[in-house]
Amino acid sequence: MANTATPNRSEAPAGTGIGASAATPTTGEQPVSYEAAVAELETLVAQMEGGALSLEDSLSAYRRGSQLVSFCQQQLEKVEQQVRVLDGEVLKPLATDEDDA
Known about the structure:
mainly alpha, Helix Hairpins, 3 helices, disordered N terminus, exonuclease, EC 3.1.11.6, hydrolase
C-alpha cells in the first residue's frame, strides 16, 4: 500500500535540473537569442513562484536564472554599443509623453 511517488515533484532525477521542459535547458548552454533567454527566464520565474519545486530544483533554477540574466545583460551592452556607434557616441534620452506636452 505504500506509495513511493512524491506528489508535485518533477519526474527528473535529483540534480538534473528543474523538470522536463524544452524551453528550459538544464545545462549551462547559451540561449540562441535574447528573446529565448527572456522566455526561459519567465518560465523559471513562474516555476519558482509556483512553489512546487524541491530545494535542489529551486537552486538549479536560480543558478540557471543567474546565467540567463548575465547573458541578457551582455546582449544589451552589445546593442547599446552598436547604438552608440550609430549615434556618434552620444546616447539621446528617450522622449516621454511629458516632453511632448
